[in-house]
Amino acid sequence: MTNRAPAAERAVALHRERWGAPAVVSRAPGRVNLIGEHTDYNDGFVLPMAIEFDTVVALSRAQRDRAGSDVVSTVVSEHFGEATLDHQRDQIDATHWSAYVFGVSRLLDGRGIATEPWRCSVATDVPIGASLSSSAALEVAMAAALLHVAGESWDAVATARICQRVENEVVGMPCGIMDPLICASAVEGHASLIDCRSLDIEPRRLVDGSVIAILDTMTRRELVDSAYADRRAACARAADWLATDALRDAQLDAIERMPADLRTERRRARHVITENERTLAAANAMDAGDADALGDLMNASHASLRDDYEVSGPALDAMVGIAQSSPGCRGARMTGGGFAGCAVALVDTEGAEAFTRTVRDRYRAANGLDAGIWLSQPAAGASLIRSEE
Ligand code: GLA
Q1: pTM value?
Q2: In whole angstroms, what is the distance from residue 293 CA to residue 316 CA?
């Protein structure tokens, strides 16, 4: 990710090769979640931040043919090649990567925002499939470009809702709103405490003297979507039994009364209830500048995700254990949906390079894999880089 031009340059070059100068260039970042995992679809609290890797979309309008009937849009990606969609005839192929871009276009059209036809190129520095929200970054960057060419104003919450619907209704991934919302709304230098019921967003400064380390196990897992849907369904059953709308409203003493045949649901609910408490406590620890308290909460979050929610995995557990016991680390946990991909650690800025070297060496010795490790300050949410309209 180092010895090449930034994603913006690559996306523009790709657009120029095919179609000349783009009308608009937009970017949206990946994200890492500091704490508040698997709480968003339970109406709970999350505390993510945008990271310093972007997905960039360079876009222009395509001409309709003379009869006005040619409404074919084209996307070309530096990683995945090209795809086209005839808006009047074609179904979107939910299993194809282009569903993220075509889905955004179709749902915006469905809201009366005329976006089609268009052509665009995509480049990204967000590691793909690593739990860093590469898909939300793509959707949000696409939405920003299309809204701009349609002359619409930018609304982070409305955009995030559209992108979540693309995942839920077009791609078939029943995810919550955290990822597109932080990609769309992040404030530079801050993580955001998000109430996933009211969608209130409160930016919080990272603790002074600390930096976030993103630790990629370099493992990926297929079939994460079905495990995710399974966890979501267990939470819904627990909420049903507790007669609450969402686990956000449930209390720990109430779940202890759940019957033995719901013991899995009880453990899932215990994670959600305690994780919401930890997330609010983590925001307070950030306000107080207390890196130790924040780190302890991250460690407890990992244990709960591993033991009660069962969404960690061997490589994530190894990485988190290594990070937690390396010098300069205040706390570490898996981040995102789980099973594989990335962990996140809170590290003293002074000594962060030594932490990185230690974790890399120890992870290689333990797993035989070269971890991807990046130090990141909180980045800004989606924006336009350039517009010629
Ligand atoms: C994925 C989903 C999010 C969220 C996390 C777990 O990233 O896209 O909505 O549920 O998993 O916290």
Answers
A1: 0.96
A2: 22
Short-list 195, 214, 209, CA closest to 289 = 209
| Residue 28, beta-bridge partner list | 55
Using only C-alpha atoms, the chain has a radius of gyration, in whole angstroms, of 21
Residue closest via CA to ligand 1's atom 8 equals: 175
Q: Which fold has domain 7-205+378-387?
A: Ribosomal Protein S5; domain 2 (3.30.230)
pLDDT digits (tens, 9 = 90+) for 175-229: 999 999 999 999 999 999 999 999 999 999 999 999 999 999 999 987 678 999 9
The pLDDT tens digits of the residues spanning 111-135 come to 888 777 999 999 999 999 999 999 9
CATH code reported for the domain at 210-376:
3.30.70.890
- Å from CA of 217 to ligand 1 middle: 18
Best probe residue, ligand 1, of 171, 226, 228, 310 (max atoms within 8 Å of C-beta)? 228
What residues are in contact with ligand 1 under a 6 Å CB criterion?
Answer: 37-38, 40-41, 175-176, 178-179, 336-337
